[in-house]
Write a structure and sequence with these properties.
The structure is a homodimer of 307-residue chains.
Chain A: E1 4-10, E2 24-29, E3 32-38, H1 42-48, E4 56-60, H2 72-81, E5 88-92, H3 95-106, E6 115-119, E7 129-130, E8 134-140, E9 148-154, E10 160-161, H4 163-169, H5 173-181, E11 185-186, E12 192-193, H6 195-198, E13 199-200, E14 207-211, E15 229-233, H7 241-247, H8 252-261, E16 266-270, H9 280-289, E17 293-295, E18 301-303
Parallel strand pairs in A: 3-4, 4-5, 5-6, 14-15, 15-16, 16-17
Antiparallel strand pairs in A: 1-2, 1-18, 2-3, 7-8, 8-9, 9-14, 10-13, 11-12
Chain lengths: 307, 307
């Protein structure tokens, strides 16, 4: 079972409806939780769908249109009221820092935890967040205000050595790491064992990319090559391609084209315009271009897997 | 049937729960709609409970704690995206004006309608809003930041003249108004008809008061005398009276005491602390002091009537 999971909290566009909330999703990988965008009501969506978020330490805000960040100050306040002490880091366009500070100042609130702001303008290809096992990078999207996509990539996993071989050959531990990384092994008699003979390949590393909001932009694909799951905005259907282009949003077919061109394994559509009470038309159009497409469903948690 | 109605959208305190949203309510009187407070998710609550708010032109924000206003910018944005043209007036503490402008500036939004800010600091006993039929006033509450309560009062209704008497006596129209206002009538023969003989009293004027957030404060009562319905915060139960006092909130019993001392007809409790999964304890305690007490229920619309 995969340890990489995505909970979709809101899949609507700028205007909320009775069935679609503004953007927000929680990405979980082993002990780590990352919130990507935080539209109004994101904290209520977490409560409603019983999604725990106690481990949350990093929040990523794609851009400063309200449907992607109006819920952030409420979440910050709730953490404060519940006595949070550990720091919270917010990766966002620089302007958000002053705005959040302005909001806290108006209510005369001094948070009992540290709020760290990291400005997306300052990264290029540098990771925003990195651990031994994975990293998260941002990349520019094409929207009416500065806007970034995010890609999570698990680092390449080590090869697995045949356990019997380790025991028979009494391989020293420093050699084990090297073999796992791909080295051949030479035993005390000078016999060489090729790495391919004594190890098996690990599973493919998992990855996830978030692209919202953006016009169709072929240059995105180089940042999200081969991802396991791509979430791409699909605000409009084919009939509204001109509107999409004017408003710097995408059609479902365009999202599918990005999935295809980036060699994504699976595509999840979201950011549906309020006009689609049933976004099935978006699914149908996208599947003609990229069959492994699905509509995101609010409150659902998706396992991100190599299949 | 009364034309004065209150829809409760959120009855929770600072921290939202799976069952309580932050403060927000819609007061409707004939063709007028007034939103009182606008915590995060207020616009979603309106959608969820299918409460139309197209006639909304005036919003009242009691104070600048987030659970009373974080949803305002989202509502302002939604009106903009739906092409609103008529002005929207916001009665709020002065600091809110700069904050909302800051938020609009960050997203480079120029609203296609006029946003008018009226600062609560500038009114004393002057009405915030007045029509021929009613007025709305603010009054100070006792909280940790400047905070105002609001009272809606229908103006005294005119007396009703016996229809047969009007027809028989062929009363000129300018006299009719005077009689309705309480004057006696002298006919062409010089005969005087006492007002009490020819008219009947109108129903009692309706009124509504909103008191949240506030510590117990006897001085509130003079502003809300004889209201038909009082909504008063009841954050805590009797066992937490000291906490209530420290945090400048009220217990349910204190809310009931205010209802009793102000001679309110009916009391609706709200602003329940997240610790009360079932606020029935608050109801029981309040009813010992003021029997005509009810727990507010989210999504419910209450007719405000003289009974």
């Amino acid at each position: 079972v995969s340890n990489l999971k995505l909970s979709v909290l809101g899949n609507g566009a700028a205007v909320p409806t009775a069935y679609c909330n503004p953007s927000g999703q929680l990405l979980t990988f082993e002990g780590n939780q990352f919130l990507i965008d935080c539209g109004e009501g994101t904290q209520m969506q977490l409560l409603k769908h019983k999604i725990r978020y106690r481990k949350l330490e990093n929040i990523f805000i794609s851009h400063l249109h309200g449907d992607h960040y109006y819920g952030l100050i409420g979440l910050i306040s709730t953490f404060h009221l519940y006595g949070r002490e550990k720091p919270l880091t917010i990766y966002a366009p620089a302007d958000l820092e002053e705005l959040i500070k302005h909001q806290l100042q108006v209510s005369k609130t001094t948070l009992n935890y540290e709020l760290r702001f990291m400005h997306l303008e300052n990264y290029n290809d540098d990771p925003l967040f990195e651990s031994d096992d994975f990293y998260i990078k941002s990349f520019p999207l094409k929207h009416s205000v500065p806007c970034w996509g995010f890609v999570f990539r698990e680092k390449p996993l080590l090869r697995k050595i045949n356990r019997e071989f380790i025991e028979n050959k009494k391989i020293p531990s420093e050699q084990i790491v090297k073999i796992k990384q791909g080295s051949d092994f030479v035993d005390s008699d000078g016999v060489t064992y090729l790495n391919s003979q004594i190890t098996i390949a690990p599973r493919k590393s998992l990855s996830y990319a978030y692209c919202s909001d953006t016009a169709y932009d072929e240059s995105i694909t180089k940042h999200i090559k081969d991802v396991t799951l791509l979430y791409h905005e699909a605000t409009f259907d084919n009939s509204m391609e001109t509107v999409a282009s004017e408003k710097l949003h995408s059609t479902a077919s365009q999202a599918a084209q990005i999935a295809k061109n980036s060699n994504s394994l699976k595509l999840l559509l979201g950011h549906f315009s309020a006009r689609f009470k049933d976004p099935k038309v978006l699914l149908d159009e996208a599947r003609k271009v990229f069959p492994n497409t699905f509509l995101s469903i609010e409150g659902r948690t998706y396992l991100i897997e190599n299949k």
